[in-house]
DNA sequence: ATTAGGG
DNA sequence: CCCTAAT
């Protein structure tokens, strides 16, 4: 059991988990899940806490006298932005269209959207599908920058025409040869995208119109035509950022459906064991929220209690407000989860690009419902809790673990945090201005309102919550962790929690990494004109004292290596699936190592076994009815290809076997004849 | 180290 | 995803 290990958790920001796709196979893992969910509560506590805090501040500084008619505008504005000096984060496309993804979709709409995305094309800057053998056809596709659903379909149709019936592909002559070559080319594209090494395009025999200069920051703006009635803005903005040559392309891609993973930058860790460990950590601490509704009451409960811990002195009047806020937070967590993951990711992307900023905090400004008072209501949808390292003995109880996490985070938040307000990229310094004067109350435009969490230079005021974290804190005493081990938050009293800017913000949330572009989360938030979530310097709280730890050091190590942690679950993105399909189409099944090298070479977390497994499930998925499918919906078109390829290669395999049988029997008979 | 398949 | 038997 994993808990028997000395737990070493790395928190790296916290987000409301993305959608529920937690594996349903709970066998043997239920313990974990519960544990994980507990952590979740902590996250919500934090979320709510900060939100409440900010809200209160807003209230107190709010002195609106005007009554201004507000239009009820349901769209959620997003969000944070911090302008970088002289560095427009997004010169063109990304900033251009003031479109919002409508995250307030509910119920059917949402499902509908998720299930039938407007032309589920996710080809990032992958040039595609031209066929040499057929000029007219190739005219159609050569230089096509992005294959749309239509064109892809054409391509498939074309293929089936050539091959007769799909899946019955007999390699016939040069036509298929051409296709083969083209496919190979395409595959290279994809795989290079995946591998983060865009091929030498300039030398390519298939010149593309991509202006890609690998080592530099590249921003490809691909405007994809929006297929007819898609209600979601559809724009493909691709930023390719080559950080290191061996590292990845990271950037913000186009909106995609359900691809909600946040990602974290490449782990600079060679040791696979550590990688595994890390992955497990993420798995443990960043679980998915399986049933939000179910936990809502619990969360509120926790929320309330936590609030009490340091907002006790606040007037009860705020209670109802906070309750309301909380409800909204929770109810929004569904939609928000997407945003948050995305925003968070975005922040990292920005970071990768070089922009710097303080903490990332995603907030949304909503128009008030009551036109009477013209109140400004803010709801912070998410913020990232800086990386937290928690070490706790295996003998500790789950309760103590929870407490430790909570306290650690609380220490950060409570320890003299200064909140900055950013509006349209500018810091609002004058605390005495009203929101109206500042312009925060205007929600007509795409006003970006952001908050910065900064270490408070000045010691917390008397009214401000004191850092809870202290050795002598009663909270400690009650902790049933063996005294010497709960050393984490030994932050000196009054001292601000050490906040360190991390150039390499590592994300949480399913611990997706940026090993390749496939890991990227299409980022609808990009489309909120100019609302660029700022790059987040992760605020990292670093444990200051370490002495007590030396007590049980090697012990853990030995045991750890023995009981390898289960790897984190990392659902394949559509893009990955696409790549896999393409690779298999070319290489066939049964050559998983080749497939791996071919299409996932740089995706360290995808082993050939993984790919094989994924193919297995893909084939299965393709066979079952769409209703029975789970997880991020795979475009039917891809599934069709899966089936076709599967059929094709199965046949090949069968043919091979028959061939071999014939050969052997031939040998046999000839031997007998002698 | 890979492959194939069950769990 | 994991585990394993068989290559």
UniProtKB/TrEMBL annotation:
Residues forming the HTH myb-type domain are: 564-623
Ranges for domain Myb-like come to: 564-619
Signal peptide (from-to)? none
What InterPro entries does the record tag this protein with? Homeodomain-like_sf, Myb_dom, SANT/Myb, TPR1-6-like_ubiquitin, TRP_plant, Ubiquitin-like_dom, Ubiquitin-like_domsf
Q: Does the keyword DNA-binding apply?
A: yes
Q: Which residues form the Ubiquitin-like domain?
A: 376-446
Q: Give a GO molecular function annotation for the protein.
A: telomeric DNA binding
Instruction: Give the top-rank taxon of the lineage listed in the UniProt record for this protein.
Output: Eukaryota
Q: Keywords assigned by UniProt? A: DNA-binding
Instruction: Please report the name of this protein according to its UniProt entry.
Output: HTH myb-type domain-containing protein
